[in-house]
What does this fold into?
Amino acid sequence: MRATQLLLRTIRDEPSEAETASHRLMLRAGMMTQVAAGVYSYLPLALRSIRKIERIIREEMNAAGGQELLMPALQPIEAWRQTGRDAAFGANLFRLTDRRDRGMALAPTHEEVVTAIAGAHVESYRDLPLTLYQIQTKFRDEPRPRAGLLRGREFSMKDAYSFDAGPEGLDATYQRMRTAYRNIFRRCGLPTIEVEADSGAIGGKDSHEFIMPAQSGEDVILLCEESGYAANVERAASIIPPAPEGDPLPMTLADTPGVTTIAGLADFLGVPQSQTLKAVFYQADGETALVTIRGDVEVNEIKLKNYLGCSDLRLANAEEAAAAGLTPGSTSPVGLDGVRRIADNSILQGANFAAGANQPGKHYVNVNYPRDFQVDETADVATAREGDGSPDGKGVLKAARGIEVGHVFKLGTFFTETLGVQYLDEHGERRPVVMGCYGIGVTRVLAAAIEQNHDEKGVIFPAPIAPFPVHLIALNASDPQVREAADALHEELESAGYETLYDDRGESAGVKFNDADLLGLPVRIVVSPRNLKQGVVEIKRRRESDATLAPAGAVTSAVADALAKDEL
Ligand code: ATP
Ligand code: MG
It folds into this structure.
């Protein structure tokens, strides 16, 4: 492809609206333009890369037994009401009304429609297992569209749905999908980490996320090198360092003027924060709940929400706290009754804690559980931290940031039971079909790849997903000899199967080199008058700073060698 014929305009200035490297570089490299918040046109370079990612995904999905279909984005809202997900998605669901006043939605995901398709097809166990997938545009009215393609409101997703006769079948399909995902990201040239993920309130169901490590990522994961444990912080368990032990001393009330925080309390009393207790007051679907947890540990609200099985969880406000008899700055489980009392497992060890007294300017010291206060239940609702022990007892957790690019999830029978999708088993009995769902954010993968692979000059595309693997630059393109040699090399590379962006523009060397660094195609070849005289061309990998010279007759094999270095 000749640069003079390509829809491409690079931008030198930093776009002011860009928040992360991929957002900034994709705008500067002329890969996309913004149409509305979180809505973009993918220009030719970006689309080429997207098509390569899609191709790898298709090959692996097909190899894993998936069948491709294509479902509509536009769907009747009725389908969403039936499963209760119009409420669950809330304002994230794009809603519209057709000319006959019928409610419609733009689908953020496709469980409803795909389950109906399976329902019409599946009669008996002989029709199972079945895995259907599509690569399709999704719509989510995200509260904070962010960072270009990382969090769009219109984006491309590969979504797959599996239908099995029972949990064993689902497990086999699930493992096959995990393997396919590992293959996909490896073949894209993108290292990802597979982590245990939150599976929501339905509970007990397996769920894994594929996270691409990147500083700009929104997800925090906890990893243990020794044990191989890896989990999203939303879900991670850990072993916290123990609190000081000792014989229980008599509980006493202490004056703590002006002390309203755990840090302040620990300082004031000269005890470690691990020897304090805090009490956090929540509203869960209108019910009030008090969570008592060790002072140095934070409540994990996702774990708490799953534990309570509620759909809405928030901190109680001052009025609600007061109504329950709590004093802000001194909230306490001691002497508290009439609300649901939950304690995190962290309070089960240690002795002689400092805790609130539900009185302004006062705290209790030497509080011991269960001697001095009672709870209704204990559970793991703590946020795991870097430095905590791995939950399997084998090593220490490290934290890292990353971007969720894929998610696999055992759905179970929620959709098939709600929509009445059953099959006849070997004994002629009706049973609900068991489902799994598997997503990859195709456009997010492209953005994440750039987050992971760039430097101050521009993108550094991994070869398998580069819009073009080769960037051929003719210096002094008006020199007839250069032009002739570069034209010939362009044809040679294309016919050898290397898609080549051929910079045949009349721009200066500086402009061409800067653009090449910005676009980040993996291999750069320079044809110049000086090198031509010696019968060589210059070859440079974008990832490396040094160029090498290759005889003009051996360019394709040099390109093959350079590209092979990008494989994982
Ligand atoms: P997130 O937690 O980032 O909002 P999610 O868990 O809601 O994502 P899923 O429903 O699991 O997303 O969707 C499957 C995949 O689709 C995700 O793993 C991600 O790669 C991609 N994806 C989700 N939301 C977006 C978005 N707004 N823009 C781009 N890709 C997205
Ligand atoms: Mg997800």
